[in-house]
Write a structure and sequence with these properties.
Elements: H1 2-13, E1 32-39, H2 40-45, H3 48-68, H4 72-75, E2 78-84, E3 88-94, H5 99-110, E4 115-120, E5 123-129, E6 148-152, E7 158-162, H6 165-173, E8 196-203, H7 216-222, E9 224-234, E10 237-246, H8 249-266, H9 274-281, E11 284-288, E12 291-298, H10 300-308
Antiparallel strand pairs: 1-2, 1-8, 2-3, 3-7, 4-5, 5-6, 6-7, 8-9, 9-10, 10-12, 11-12
């Protein structure tokens, strides 16, 4: 499960900066620290997404099938993961997950230690690990699931994975849906489009600046409150949008100037090749108050090339 999610994180993080609903503001709790949503079915059935999905299949799906005998390409349609600052990580895998696959997952878990079956309102879920190791800190990506995790197949078409018993009971009580809080002060940025493939966002308060504070990268992190990324299918091309919410409008303008300057420096760098040069020249940077937006439309073949490098 962690390999699948880390593969999806790679799919979003390595990108340079049928319709799908994706994730909306009302789908997340008020204290969400980060979120990730990947619609694999939209990738498989779309125009631009098919090329990127083939990379994902080669890098993650095939390896999982070889290692554990489960073909997530056939049984997983989407993955939504997020973490709040109180209870830690939740992962919701949607798709036609078969009974044999469920049994394989439980058998694999049993090789690592005892499987503790539990019941809530007539629904079965399982605990793996040591309850003393339960970590309800939601600032780290999936790390709270390494030593203690709760899993359930009780909701048709879903695998539910949580870091705490309370989270699991809440999901089972709500038929596998997250009890979101809608729009509110401090809500995370969520970008959406008609044919959404990947969405991700983070509250950067949890990011530790390990640098000396003098380089531009450190300054951007230090003065950014939130960041969000979207990948969507747009007429056979991949539309990429990234947004940064800065601490104040002047800082957003300054960061926008830095990004435009870097784009200008690289636009005529012959070492990048004509495709990347064209992409850089067609990247749009806009600032509205304290929000910096970066937009580009890119050939999916170029994305796969970048991911492969």
């Amino acid at each position: 499960m962690s390999k699948l999610c880390l593969g999806l994180v790679a799919l979003t993080a390595l990108i340079p900066l049928g319709a799908s609903a994706g994730v909306a503001v009302g789908d997340l709790p008020e204290n969400t620290v980060w979120y990730l949503h990947a619609d694999l079915e939209a990738m498989r059935s779309g125009d631009a997404g098919t090329t990127v999905y083939q990379w994902f299949e080669d890098e993650v799906v095939v390896e999982l099938k070889d290692e554990i005998g489960i073909d997530i390409g056939e049984e997983v349609d989407s993955v939504t993961a997020f973490s709040d600052s109180e209870d830690g990580t939740i992962i919701i895998v949607s798709g036609p997950v078969t009974k044999p696959t469920q049994e394989k997952l439980l058998a694999l878990a049993a090789t690592k230690g005892p499987v503790d079956p539990r019941e809530f309102d007539g629904k079965t879920y399982y605990f793996f690990g040591d309850e003393e190791e339960i970590d309800d800190n939601g600032s780290d990506f999936f790390e709270d699931l390494e030593d203690a995790v709760f899993v359930s197949f009780a909701i048709d078409g879903k695998i539910l994975v949580t870091g705490t018993d309370r989270q699991m009971r809440g999901l089972l009580d709500n038929k596998g849906k997250v009890a979101g809080t809608g729009s509110h002060d401090g809500a995370l940025l969520i970008l959406s489009a008609n044919k959404t493939l990947v969405q991700a966002g983070i509250n950067t308060d949890g990011i530790v600046d390990a640098g000396d504070g003098d380089d531009w990268e450190s300054n951007i992190v230090r003065n950014t409150e939130q960041a969000a990324l979207l990948m969507a299918d747009e007429s056979g091309q991949l539309a990429i949008e990234a947004q940064l919410m800065s601490t104040d409008p002047k800082m957003a303008e300054a960061i926008g100037g830095i990004v435009n300057g870097l784009i200008a420096l690289q636009a005529f760098n012959s070492e990048l090749g004509p495709e990347l040069q064209s992409l850089i020249r067609n990247t749009r940077v806009e600032v509205l108050e304290n929000i910096l937006s970066i937009n580009m439309v890119i050939d999916p073949e170029l994305v796969v090339t970048v991911l492969g490098d």
